[in-house]
Write a structure and sequence with these properties.
Blueprint: H1 13-19, H2 29-40, E1 43-46, E2 54-57, H3 60-68, E3 73-74, H4 85-95, H5 111-120, H6 125-128, H7 132-147, E4 152-154, H8 155-160, H9 162-172, H10 179-190, H11 206-233, H12 239-245, E5 247-248, E6 251-252, H13 255-286, H14 288-296, H15 301-312, E7 317-322, E8 326-328, E9 331-333, E10 338-342, H16 343-346, H17 381-395, E11 399-404, E12 409-410, E13 419-421, E14 423-428
Parallel strand pairs: 2-10
Antiparallel strand pairs: 1-2, 3-7, 4-14, 5-6, 7-10, 8-9, 11-14, 12-13
Helix pairs in contact: 4-11, 7-9, 7-17, 9-13, 10-11, 10-13, 11-12, 11-13, 13-14, 13-15, 13-17, 15-17
């Protein structure tokens, strides 16, 4: 990073260390740091120990500007998520590249648009409409199970984890009996820094982390290899059939790409939705006036959905790297520089959101960047919103009151994080 040698734009060391501290994402320290950066150094350079230096992009407009310019800011040239120097070196030895998987997230043109087109139609509202009745059935069953718990539950454990998992697995074509395995693998993949979900709980070396991630990917690969064979022999009307039989340039996808494709659908397709769903209930449980407002005005439910996605922003960052010298926000970025797009900061940008730290179901407009922006905009955004809307339509009419019933705990992770414990009390109408 040539630019990073200047030192003129360095952010304070304590804030740089907060950005790479998984525990900071489980409390408000990360938002305190983002707030300071937006006000004082919205495009600065972080130099935390054990990491290559990187630009920290905290403003909504800058995140959008980078996300619009896919030729200038690549996904695949360097790690797409924040990675230590030692781990990147280890991954490059294993794969010959900077990333362990090669999903849509780790691709640039020309591969990215070709691979995205394979399933894009599946995730459009016109196609998702055919699943709506089934999603509502799953939501009703989930809600009834919660109501049967007698006025108290852990909303994450009892509702938020299982519901979107069940929906995406059904759309993908994974048998219900295998859902616990998919949940466990997802938590291990996204939460390797969290002591509750990591396979190894002590301080991990780069070798241990890469071995752990490789083992998780191998588990996914073995599982979906069988599904691919089965769907090629017996195609069905499910997403696994589309992925198994998809061809790029006349040939089936390479197996590593195919595993990566299954993984992004099977993991991103529920983990982030779980976090946003829990975020909405958390916000309503601690604000009786907001709960009363949404309950009295069901037409606010789509706004509740969008606000909870903004509020939680489950995917906290993605990384990009510059393919040429350029300028952004009056600062010169050099070819090869690494940039951290802080979506959770952009979604609380005071220049875009009035009262950004308040949860408002009636927030309009709500131009959040939780699903990314531009060519890499999340494929599953319509499905996530559909699932959440239906769940709240089925749940809220049953609830007379809602309150917190203990300490809320967040996942400790700087890539994907959200509530992992949400104890609530509720009265039923």
């Amino acid at each position: 990073m040539d630019t990073a040698t200047t030192g003129d734009f360095d952010i304070p060391a304590n804030i740089a260390e907060t950005l790479v501290d998984p525990v900071a994402y489980a409390d408000d320290r990360i938002h305190d740091s983002y707030r300071w950066l937006r006000a004082n150094n919205p495009l600065g350079i972080a130099r935390p120990e054990k990491f290559d230096p990187f630009w920290v992009v905290t403003k909504h407009a800058h995140i959008q500007a980078i996300s619009r310019q896919n030729e200038l800011f690549h996904n695949a040239d360097r790690p797409t998520t924040l990675t230590t120097q030692a781990l990147e070196e280890r991954v490059r030895k294993i794969t010959g590249g900077p990333n362990l998987v090669r999903s849509l997230v780790q691709m640039d043109a020309p591969d990215h648009p070709k691979y995205r087109a394979l399933t894009q139609g599946w995730f459009m509202p016109a196609n998702l409409g055919k699943f709506e009745a089934r999603v509502r059935e799953i939501a009703r069953t989930t809600v009834q199970r919660m109501l049967d718990r007698g006025g108290a539950c852990d909303f994450v454990e009892d509702v938020a984890l299982g519901y979107p998992l069940h929906v995406i697995m059904e759309i993908l074509g994974v048998p219900e009996a295998d859902e616990p395995r998919m949940l466990k693998l997802t938590q291990e993949l996204f939460g390797p820094q969290d002591p509750d979900t990591a396979r190894v709980r002590d301080a991990l070396s780069a070798e241990q982390v890469s071995a752990m991630l490789q083992a998780i990917i191998a588990d996914f690969s073995a599982y979906f290899r069988k599904i691919t064979e089965e769907r090629r022999q017996n195609p069905r009307d499910d997403l696994a059939t589309v992925i198994a039989n998809a061809k790029i340039g006349g040939d089936y996808m390479p197996e590593h790409d195919q595993t990566s494709y299954y993984m992004i659908v099977a993991t991103a397709g529920h983990d982030t939705t779980s976090s946003s769903t829990a975020g909405a209930i958390w916000a309503l449980a601690r604000d009786p006036a907001e709960f009363a407002k949404v309950k009295a005005n069901p037409e606010l439910i789509p706004g509740l959905v969008d606000e909870s996605i903004r509020w939680m922003t489950p995917v906290k960052h993605f990384m990009r790297s510059a393919t040429a010298d350029t300028e952004l926000g009056g600062r010169k970025i050099a070819k090869g520089d690494w940039l951290m797009l802080c979506y959770a900061s952009g979604n609380r940008d005071e220049d875009v959101f009035e009262e950004p730290d308040r949860f408002r179901s009636d927030r309009k407009p709500n131009r959040h960047v939780a699903f990314g922006y531009g060519a890499h905009l999340c494929l599953g955004q319509y499905l996530a919103k559909l699932e959440m809307r239906i769940l709240f339509e089925e749940l809220l009419p049953h609830l007379k009151s809602l309150s917190l019933d203990g300490e809320v705990k967040m996942t400790q992770a700087y890539f994907v994080s959200g509530p992992k414990k949400l104890p609530i009390r509720f009265e039923v109408n």
